[in-house]
Amino acid sequence: GHGLDLWSLGCIMPEIITGAKLFDATKEEQLVKLFIRTLDVPDFLISITEKQKVREEIKPSVGWIRFQDFKMGTYDRLRDPQKTKDIAWFVDLVYKMLKVMPYDRITAADALSHPFLTMLHFIDYPHTAMTRRNMEIMKKCALQEI
Fold first, then answer.
1. How many domains is the chain partitioned into structurally?
2. How far apart, in whole angstroms, are the C-alpha atoms of residue 15 and residue 105?
3. Which of 2, 3, 34, 108 allows an S-S link to 102, with CB 3.0 to 4.6 Å?
């Protein structure tokens, strides 16, 4: 279903940016524990006590830590407000894709309308190198119709 596809995309997008798997596990149990450790898992799925136990037992993956560093800004926010806004929308979309419960997850239609993908926030920065570069890429994509 669409929820699963968007979950997968939410896992892959940060990996493309950071170069490390968001949830790097070799066993299913370890993977579930990483979800519990890092995501907002509803209380009706697991008790608060069990969540705390998992948080003490397992460390987040390198990919998750890199994603948090990316989110918090290892870049100069004051020098590049456009990049700051773009990163904020990227992180927002990823978190909406990584909702544990499929019915809470962003739909494909809503994802396509999300500001990170529509890039409407670029309107505020019409003359920057980032805007020009993205416009060039979009023009090339439009010319290469399927």
1. 1
2. 19
3. 3
